[in-house]
Amino acid sequence: EAGAMQRATRRLLMVTSTSAFNQWVEAAEEARRHRRIMAKVMTQARNRAVSGGFAAWLDAVAEGKRMRALARKAMARAAKGEGRLLASALAGWVEALAYAHEARGLLRRALQFQL
Q1: Which end of the chain has fewer CB atoms surrounding its CB within 10 Å, N or C?
Q2: Which positions ≥6 away from 70 have C-beta within 8 Å?
Q3: How many angstroms separate the CA atoms of 108 and 41, rounded?
Q4: Is 83 helix (H, G, I), strand (E, B) or coil?
Q5: Residue 81 in 3-state DSSP?
Q6: pLDDT for residue 2
């Protein structure tokens, strides 16, 4: 009977150990699943920020092209001698362009900081 009692005790210990191990495995799988979900959420957030930055860059490029076209027209008019008013307007445009360039640099740094 002592042998039967020892076998029963060992079986009970194995069942307890197996149950604890199974719980650990489930907890580890759940933690792994949570890490994958968080990685996916972070990737989506980063992609949104990048695509927003890309859209802003596209807008800035389009605006730059538009401003260069306006500058060419203004320079052509100035070359024809349309006076000081045009020169003053051109100076204002150059100042606005410098401001836009500075703002673009600030936006770029802000996006780099965000990522």
Answers
A1: N
A2: 93
A3: 24
A4: coil
A5: coil
A6: 73
> Tokens 């990685």 label which residue?
39
Indicate the pTM of the whole model.
Answer: 0.38
Sign of torsion over alpha carbons 74, 76, 79, 83: negative
Tokens 């990737």 belong to residue: 43
Work out whether the CA dihedral 80, 86, 88, 90 comes out positive or negative: negative
- Residues 42-56 have pLDDT tens digits of 888 777 777 777 778
Residue indicated by tokens 């640099």: 105
Rounded Cα distance, 34 and 52, in Å: 27
What is the C-alpha separation between 2 and 38, in angstroms, rounded? 54
